[in-house]
Amino acid sequence: MSIKFGNTVFLRNGVLASGILGVTGYSMLKVAEDGAGGVTCKSISKIERKGHPTPVVQVFNSGVINAVGLSSTGVERTTSELKILKDKSDAVVIASIFAGTVEEFGETASMIDENICDMIEVNISCPNVADEFGLPFASDPKISGEITRVAKNSTKLPVIIKLSPNYPNICEVAKSCEANGADGITAINTLGPGMLIDVHTYKPKLSNKKGGVSGPAIFPVALRIVYDLYKAIKIPIIGMGGVTEAEDAIQMIAAGATLYGVGTGILYKGTSIFKNINAALDNYLAEKKMKYEELIGIAHRI
Ligand SMILES: Cc1cc2nc3c(=O)[nH]c(=O)nc-3n(C[C@H](O)[C@H](O)[C@H](O)COP(=O)(O)O)c2cc1C
């Protein structure tokens, strides 16, 4: 079965989340060779940006906290890395973009090479840059809709919007993106902000003090959000947030995700996580005598 986001066709294999191994062409290629059906690059801006000083990532018992601060190699340099992925794999190439204003989202979307990338993911949900950009755009349905419209008008590629779990109006935001032409939704970005404190220095472990939480700790929240979004919108959803096991991916799809996504799970299981989840998913469907499309959203039909 093929799965469509706009006119981009996916195999039903999972998607690499933005920000994890998404900077060099060969690291993205490794993830594709290890079974990801779609690969998203780290979010990029028009021109390069530094991000926060280190430490920007810390690991805890059941996940990761990060405040990378949207460091970016810029569209031009990242395009040459994405070309390596495009030339050497069949994975769907997803360019994740971010910007500081509605207009700049359009300018950045128009810079994405339509011969190299298959789809644009618009990151309106990074929680760690409030000092620079104010509240993430994903907190506001109206602005989220405007960004969607401007991005759609700036490219022929399908456009999906990456949402934040940190605002209770996430379904309103998703509906506004859908009404303005979004071809899909990615949910969720990191949860929080959260923090960790060093018990010897009593200082926050991140230079930014606070950061977004990812990994197994956030799985139940991500699952609930995908479940709610499935009821609110008709466009397809990439469901991510703490997926580490095949059973997590199956739950995401049963809640309504068209595809599952993995980011932090690579820390626990390596890049072969995709191959292993895909094989386990195939076995599960065979045992249940079920087609993949029957699994999507089944939790709503029971
Ligand atoms: C170190 C790190 C960097 C991230 N950078 C980005 C980013 O640049 N753009 C983005 O949209 N999401 C970014 N994310 C969020 C992930 O793409 C994903 O939405 C989130 O981590 C939840 O999925 P997971 O639990 O499978 O990691 C980042 C996450 C981590 C851990």
Question: Which helices and strands appear, and what pairs or packs with what?
Answer:
Blueprint (H helix, E strand, L loop, with lengths): L2 E3 L2 E3 L4 E2 L8 H9 L4 E3 L16 E4 L2 E4 L7 H15 L3 E6 L4 H10 L7 E5 L6 H4 L7 H13 L5 E4 L7 H10 L4 E4 L3 E4 L16 E4 L4 H14 L4 E3 L6 H10 L3 E4 L2 H5 L3 H16 L3 H4 L7
Parallel strand pairs: 3-4, 3-14, 4-7, 7-8, 8-9, 9-10, 10-13, 13-14
Antiparallel strand pairs: 1-2, 5-6, 6-12, 11-12
Helix pairs in contact: 1-2, 3-5, 5-6, 6-7, 7-8, 8-10
Name the average pLDDT: 94
Query: What is the helix content?
Result: 25-40%
CATH architecture heading: Alpha-Beta Barrel
Q: In the CATH hierarchy, what is the class?
A: Alpha Beta
Number of strands: 14
Shape: globular
Distance between the termini: 23 Å
- Give the distinct bound molecules: flavin mononucleotide
CATH topology name = TIM Barrel
Write the element-wise H/E pattern from the N-terminal end onward.
EEEHEEEHEHEHHEHEEEHEHEHHH
Seen as an oligomer or otherwise, the chain set is single chain
Low-confidence segments, ≥5 residues, pLDDT <50?
none
Description:
The protein has 302 residues and is α/β, with parallel strands linked by helices. The protein has a single domain (3-300), classed as TIM Barrel. 36% of the residues lie in helices and 18% in strands. It is built from eleven helices and 14 strands. It has helices at 25-33, 74-88, 102-111, 130-133, 141-153, 170-179, 219-232, 246-255, 265-269, 273-288, 292-295; strands at 3-5, 8-10, 15-16, 38-40, 57-60, 63-66, 92-97, 119-123, 159-162, 184-187, 191-194, 211-214, 237-239, 259-262. The strands form three sheets. Strands 3-4-7-8-9-10-13-14 form an eight-stranded parallel barrel, surrounded by seven helices. A hairpin with a 2-residue loop joins strand 5 and strand 6 (63-66). The chain is globular, with a radius of gyration of 18 Å. Flavin mononucleotide binds next to strand 6.
